[in-house]
Input
Amino acid sequence: MSTVKILGISGSQRKRGNCDQCLIEALGASASVGEVETEFVSLSDLHINHCTGCHRCHFQGTNDKPCPEFDDDMTPLYSKIDESDGFILASPVYFGSVSSTMKVFMDRTLPFTTPYYFPDGKGQFK
Output
């Protein structure tokens, strides 16, 4: 059996707050199951630009730079996401939805939709 990789993403701006603590507990529970490797990522430490919806990722995205529009702290997260088998997303609830930090992160995962929208497209990032 191979090791399962779980990536935990915290969308809270409050470092070590309730959201982070709950995510750390969930990752700990995941790791206790067996052959599970976990990693905690706090978005509060990162600078991630807002997705502009240019869809250049679908045509010009590469494995090294899935989002050709920006070279920010999201760029190294793409490989972490790609290498993970599962995710735990944790966010405080603001106005009935996730935090703006988490929403920006979620929007910037657009390169992962490339094979679904353009199965014969020119983008390399799959």
About this structure: The mean pLDDT is 88. The two ends are 25 Å apart (CA to CA).
